[in-house]
C-alpha cells in the first residue's frame, strides 16, 4: 500500500546525503565550482574594484606631499598700450608758443619666478609620512573589503545550494503527500478510514505545497544575491566544501592571529599614525619658513618707445608667523583630539574583531555538532516513518500518525541541509574573522591585485596628468 511512498522517501534521503557528503548540492562534472565563483567575485565585484580605485586615489597623496620639497616655477607675460599726452604753456618755457607732447608706448614683458622651500619646520616631512600612512591604511582597508566580498560570495554560493536542496525536498514531500492522499481516499472508499483522515491528508498536502512555494521564493532571492556578489547566474553549482584546513587549531590561536593580523585593526593603527602626523603638519604653521626666490624678467617700452630692460634677482626669504588670530592654535588642538579619537577607535576595532572571532568559532563548532545530530535525526525519523507505515497497515496507527512521521522526516532532512550549509559558511567566517580570507590563501585561479604596483608608478612622478593605465 505504501510502496510508492517508500520509494520516493528513499530517493529524497539519498539526495540529502549526497548534499551532506560535501556540503553542497551535487551537480554534473562540468558544474561551476566554489573556487571559480570566488575567483570571479575577486576579479569583477564592483565593490572590490571601487575600493581598489580608492587605494589608487590615495596613492596620489604621496606625490602631492612630496611636492613640498620641489621648486614651484611660474611664468607670466603681459602686453598693453598706453598713450601719454602732455602740454607746456608758453610762459612756462623758453618757447613763445604752447607745446604739446604725445607719447605712444606698447609696454610688454615676460618673466619667470622660481620658489624653492629650504626649511618649513618639518611640515613637508610630516605630510609625506602622513600620506604614506594613509596609503598603508587604504591597503589594509582594501584587504578587509576583499575578505568581506569573498565571504559574501561564499555565503551566496552556499545559500543557493541550500535553497535548491530544500526546494527539492519540499517538492519531493508534495509528491509523497499526493500519493498519501490518493491512497487515503482509496481506503476511505472501502471504509478503512474516515472523512477526517482524508481531510488531514488534504490539509497536510496544502501545507506542503505552500512550503514548496516559499522555498522557491527563497531560492530566487538567493540566486539574486549570488548574481549581485559573484557577477554571474548560478548554473549547476558543484559541492561547496569547508576550508577547515586553513583554520587555526584552537580559539586562543584564532584570537592571537586576529588581533595581530586582521586588516581592520591594521587600518585603524595606520589611521592613528596619520592623525598624529597631522598634528605636526598643523603645528608647523606656527614656526618659521625659509625659502629662496629667483626672478627673471624682460620688459619692453617701459618708459619710451624702443627701450628694453632685463632684470634678474635671487632672494632668500624668511617668514615668521607672529599671530594669525588663533586659527592655527585651534586647528592644532582639533588635530590632537582627532588623534585621540583614532586611538580609541583602535580599541573599538579590536573588541569588534575579538567578538567576531568568538562568534564565528562558536558557529563553526555548533554547525559540526548539528550535522552529527541531524544525521542521527534523519536516520531515526526514516526508521520511525517506516515503522509507522507498517503499523498503519494493520490499523495500529492513524493517518495522522503517518503524516506526522513524514513531516518529521522532511524537517530532519531540512535541518541536515541547513547544518551542512552552516558548516561551510562558518569555516569561511572564521577565516575572515582572523584576517586570512584572501585569494592567495584560497589559491584562487585569478590574477592577484598588487596595490604596490600603482604606488611605485606614481609616488615619484614629477609631471603628467595621464594615469598609469592610460586615462
Report on this model:
The chain is α+β, with helices and mostly antiparallel strands. The chain has one domain: Up-down Bundle (Outer membrane efflux proteins (OEP)). The strands form two sheets. It has a four-stranded antiparallel beta sheet, with no helix packed on it. Helix 1 runs antiparallel to helix 9, helix 1 runs parallel beside helix 10 and helix 2 packs antiparallel against helix 5. The longest helix is centred in the N-terminal third of the chain and has 67 residues. It has twelve helices and six strands. It starts with a helix and ends in a 13-residue tail after the last helix.
Characteristics of this structure?
elongated; 64% helix; two-stranded antiparallel ribbon; four-stranded antiparallel β-sheet; 471 residues; alpha+beta; OMP_efflux; 12% strand; disordered N terminus; Outer membrane efflux proteins (OEP); coiled coil
Mean pLDDT, nearest integer?
Answer: 84
Number of strands: 6
CATH homologous superfamily caption: Outer membrane efflux proteins (OEP)
Described by the principal axes of the CA atoms, the overall outline is elongated
Q: Provide the helix percentage.
A: 55-70%
Q: In CATH, what is the class?
A: Mainly Alpha
Strand order of the largest sheet: 1-4-5-6
List low-pLDDT spans.
1-29
The helix/strand series, from N terminus to C terminus, equals HHHHEEEEHHHHEEHHHH
Number of domains: 1
What is the rounded Rg? 39 Å
State the CATH architecture. Up-down Bundle
Q: Determine the strand fraction and express it as a percent band.
A: 5-15%
Largest sheet: 4 strands, antiparallel
Coiled coil: 167-218
Family: Belongs to the outer membrane factor (OMF) (TC 1.B.17) family.
Main location: membrane
Keywords: Cell outer membrane, Coiled coil, Membrane, Transmembrane, Transmembrane beta strand, Transport
